[in-house]
Write a structure and sequence with these properties.
Layout (H helix, E strand, L loop, with lengths): L10 E9 L5 H13 L3 E10 L10 H14 L3 E4 L5 H11 L2 E3 L1 H12 L3 H15 L26 H36 L3 E7 L5 H9 L16 E6 L5 E6 L9 H6 L1 H8 L3 E7 L5 H14 L7 E6 L10 E4 L5 E5 L8 H12 L3 E8 L4 H10 L1 E7 L5 E8 H10 L7 E6 L2
Parallel strand pairs: 1-2, 1-3, 3-4, 5-7, 5-8, 8-9, 9-11
Antiparallel strand pairs: 6-7, 10-11, 12-14, 12-15, 13-14
Helix pairs in contact: 1-4, 4-5, 5-6
Length: 433
C-alpha cells in the first residue's frame, strides 16, 4: 500500500530522545511551546534514552513499534521529533507510522510560514522551505518508478522526481533573485542612514524574551506582541530621540532559537544584515528564565553564524517584574562603559537607564577624517561607503584612494581596533561642525 501524505495534521505526538545524556526540562518545554505555536494539539508524548541515534528510525526499532502503537491508539495525524532527522529516517518513519513526521527544523519552518506577513518575509520563508524540501523530495514521489536499466525495462528520459527537482531549482533561483533586489534596496537605505548620520541600534535575543514589548515601550511603534514563540518575524525600524538630543534608529528583529535551521539563517540573511550593520546590539534576555545561560549561549551562536559577534553589545535583562528582589539598575564595566541594564519592558521600570546607556554607547562627537588607502584596501573602502559619510574620494597615483569622510568617534575607535593598519594611513582629523 502506498502512503499518501495527509493535507493537514492537528493532533500530534511529541517525541523527545535524550541522546548521550540527560536533557534539560526546559528543552522539552520549549518543543511543546513550538508545537502549540504551530497549531498542533498534543495528544501523546514519547520519551527515551539512547547513546547514539538509530540510523533507520532514529529512536530504534523497539521505540518505533511503541510509537506506532501510540499513534494508532490516539489517532494522531502528526508526529513531531524534537531532533533533526535525515530524509531517510523521515521516510522510514512515515512508512511505518502511516502519518506525517516532522522534525524540529520542519516545525520551525512551519511556524515561520504562518507568521510571515510582509512580501519579503514570505519570500524568505518560501526559500527556506524549498531548500529544506530539496533533500526530501523523494518522500512525495514514492509512487513513481525511477529509471530502470536492461532491455525492455528502460524508463523515460526524465523521471517525475527529476522533473520536480528541476522545477524546484528554478523556483529557488527566482526567489534568490527577488531577495537580491530587496537586499540592494536595503543597502541603499543603509547608505541613506549613514548620510543622515543616524546610528542603528538592533534588538536581538531569544524568541519570547520581550524584544517587541521593549521596542513598543521605547518607540510606541505598536508592533504585535504576545507571550508566544516567534510572535513577530518581519523587522521594523523606528526613530528614537535620546535625552542627549541625538537620534538613532531602533530595529526589532526576528527572535532566535536553539538549533535554528540553517535554511532559515540563509534565507533571512538579508533581514539579519540589519543586525550586521548596527552600531550597537541590545541583547534582550529573559532574566526570569531558569535556563538563562543556555539561551544567552544560543543567541551568541547565531550571532557568530551571521557575522555579528564583533558588534558592541549591551545586555538588557528584561522581565525583572517576574523576579523577587530585583530592581532596575545599570551595570558598568571596568572602563566605566555600560554593559548591562536590568529593567521591565512590561511596566516600563528601568527604561530610562537603558536610554542613558544607549546614549553613552552611540553618542559622542562626529569626527572628520582624511585617509590614504592602498589598492588592497578595496573592502575597507566599500565598508566606509556603507557606514560613514563620504565627502570626497579621489584616486591616487599608486592606484589607491584618498578619502575624506566623517563618522562618530566611538564608531571610528572601533574601526581602528578592527583595522589596525588604518591608523598609519590617517592624514588628519577634525570635529564635524
Amino acid at each position: 500500500m502506498v502512503f499518501e501524505r495527509p493535507s493537514a495534521g492537528e493532533h500530534a505526538i511529541l517525541v523527545h530522545l535524550d541522546i548521550g545524556g540527560v536533557a534539560e526540562q526546559d528543552e522539552r518545554d520549549e518543543v511543546r511551546l513550538l508545537s502549540q505555536a504551530a497549531g498542533a494539539e498534543l495528544v501523546g508524548e514519547l520519551r527515551g534514552t539512547r547513546s547514539v541515534p538509530d540510523p533507520r528510525f532514529f529512536i530504534g526499532t523497539g521505540k518505533a513499534d511503541e510509537l506506532k502503537a501510540l499513534v494508532e491508539a490516539t489517532q494522531a495525524e502528526l508526529v513531531i521529533f524534537n531532533h533533526p532527522l535525515s530524509p531517510a529516517q523521515e521516510r522510514n518513519l512515515e512508512r511505518l507510522l502511516q502519518c506525517r513526521v516532522v522534525d524540529r527544523a520542519g516545525l520551525i519552518l512551519d511556524i515561520f510560514a504562518q507568521r510571515a506577513r510582509s512580501f519579503e518575509g514570505k519570500l524568505q520563508v518560501e526559500l527556506a522551505q524549498l531548500r529544506h524540501l530539496s533533500t526530501r523530495l523523494v518522500r512525495g514521489w514514492t509512487h513513481l518508478e525511477r529509471q530502470k536499466g536492461g532491455i525492455g525495462l528502460r524508463g523515460p528520459g526524465e523521471t517525475q522526481l527529476e522533473t520536480d527537482r528541476r522545477l524546484l531549482g528554478k523556483r529557488v533561483a527566482m526567489l534568490e533573485r527577488r531577495l537580491e533586489r530587496i537586499e540592494r534596496q536595503r543597502a541603499q537605505g543603509r547608505k541613506a542612514r549613514a548620510r543622515a548620520e543616524l546610528s542603528l541600534v538592533s534588538l536581538v535575543g531569544y524568541t519570547n524574551a520581550g524584544k517587541s514589548t521593549l521596542f513598543n515601550c521605547l518607540t510606541a511603534a505598536g508592533v504585535f506582541q504576545a507571550d508566544q514563540l516567534f510572535a513577530t518575524l518581519d523587522p521594523t525600524l523606528r526613530r528614537l530621540d535620546l535625552a542627549s538630543g541625538d537620534r538613532v534608529l531602533v530595529a526589532d528583529t526576528v527572535g532566535f532559537v536553539s538549533d535554528l535551521p540553517h535554511e532559515l539563517v540563509a534565507a533571512f540573511r538579508a533581514t539579519l544584515e540589519e543586525t550586521r550593520s548596527a552600531s550597537l546590539l541590545l541583547h534582550v534576555i529573559d532574566a526570569a528564565a531558569v535556563n538563562r545561560d543556555r539561551l544567552i549561549a544560543d543567541v551568541e551562536t547565531v550571532l557568530a553564524e551571521i557575522g555579528s559577534l564583533e558588534i558592541p553589545r549591551l545586555e538588557v535583562l528584561n522581565k525583572i517584574d517576574l523576579m523577587d528582589g530585583e530592581s532596575p539598575r545599570l551595570e558598568r564595566g571596568e572602563d566605566g562603559q555600560p554593559i548591562r541594564v536590568w529593567l521591565s519592558a512590561q511596566t516600563g521600570a528601568g527604561t530610562e537607564l537603558l536610554l542613558q546607556a544607549v546614549s553613552e554607547l552611540t553618542g559622542g562627537e562626529r569626527v572628520r577624517h582624511r585617509v590614504r588607502l592602498t589598492p588592497e584596501d578595496g573592502r575597507l573602502r566599500a565598508w566606509l561607503y556603507d557606514h560613514a559619510q563620504v565627502f570626497s574620494d579621489q584616486p591616487t597615483e599608486s592606484g589607491g584612494w584618498a578619502m575624506d569622510f566623517a563618522m562618530g568617534r566611538v564608531d571610528f575607535d572601533r574601526l581602528l581596533a578592527r583595522e589596525s593598519r588604518l591608523g598609519s594611513r590617517l592624514m588628519d582629523e577634525a570635529p564635524v561642525t
